[in-house]
Amino acid sequence: MLIAKNNIHFDKISSTNDYALSIKNHFLFKEGLIISTNFQNNGKGQYSNNWHSEYAKNLLISIVIYPNLSIKKKFDLNKIASLAVCELLCCFGLNAYIKWPNDIIVNDKKICGILIENILSNKTIKKSVIGFGININQTKFKKYNIPATSLKMLNQKSYKVKKVKKELINYFFNNLYLYRKGNFDNNKYNDLIYSLNMKRDYLIGDKIVKGVIKEIDHTGNLIISVSGEKKTFKAKEISYIF
Of the CATH numbers 3.40.1800, 1.20.1050, 2.30.30, 3.40.50, which one belongs to the domain with range 199-240? Predict the structure, then answer.
């Protein structure tokens, strides 16, 4: 199994993903490189959404891997990362779910965001930076579209961020190993899809509609049944309403 080869930790940095990508041509940028920080000046989520974290309260980390994966399979990286976080949270006694496409939810609140940035060559993902922001000990959050929570809020105790970091790295590389061996548990991933087979409100354009998530297809599109008709949506074409 691949393990982390280098671990670079900062007190403060723009963002762990930004730093990792800034050294993509450096000899340190190898599979297994870990970048972490106590604070991000420019924390970000998917599609340039801002993400704010209090100093030294949460796990802010990026992991470098060399997938050598067809661009058509890029969503598999989301699956690997998302399942790793859910398994991590399970070991802390929490039932976590995957809110398509890149958030982890506990008790209808967001506890983790994932940002994956890829370096391509000839329609192949050669290198990837997998960024995680996991709420650990923070208890007050800005108002977001999705309410936030943390390990401390859920379990009424504080945690050592370094310990959570170590566990996440183990779960991530274990799932990556299983994927490369053809043994990744897709059924487990599918069972953890947030609001699967549940009717709820969604925002499509400027309209609120009731729909039921049926599945996430192999390319990462969301399949929802609206008025009995299955419809396919790409990220940003539809939003959950909380």
Answer: 2.30.30
